[in-house]
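Lab notebook, bench 4. Still working through the backlog of constructs that have no structural model yet. Next entry is a single chain of 182 residues. Request: give me the structure tokens for it.
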Amino acid sequence: MFSLRYILGAFWLTLLLCCISCTEPQPEKRAADTSFLGEEQPLQESWNVNMTIFKEDRIHAVITAGHFAEYKKNDIITRQLDKGLKITFFDSSGTSSSTLTADKGTVYNNNDMEAFDNVVITSESTVIRTDYIKRFADKKKLWSDKYVVIQKQNEIIRGYGFESDESLKNYTIFKASGESNF
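Model written out:
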């Protein structure tokens, strides 16, 4: 019949198979794989976006756009807003201080922002028109190196290059010309 050697071998083989098949499966530790997207594909997209940005316990800005796309390149995230961009900024008392509209814009990790094409910034008494503006978040400054038109109640100032505070009360025009109705 069966030899003792054969029976012991079968026993050990059966025991080994039982031990291997009876161990608990190890859960896989996985993160979302976005490598297949490439650098030109957004990580996420939304349409008809309406975002409220809070700073401490108050509303700082309300952003609306027809399209939002978030991109990641070398651990740097940029957010593209297009198909009509509108940002309403609020002062510390919660009152609307200025409104920016543009065809499109980009928001960076550090909250700096750029707006492009048909940029119009409106405050209580000032309207600024240009094709490009950059907002530096840490300095709370607006800046452009493009042609700009600033319209106030009795004056129009034109020039190339512009710098201002967010409320549009203190500004500088580089290479300026203008008209006044005094």
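Notes after review: The chain has a mean pLDDT of 81. Helices lie at 4-21. Flag for follow-up if needed.
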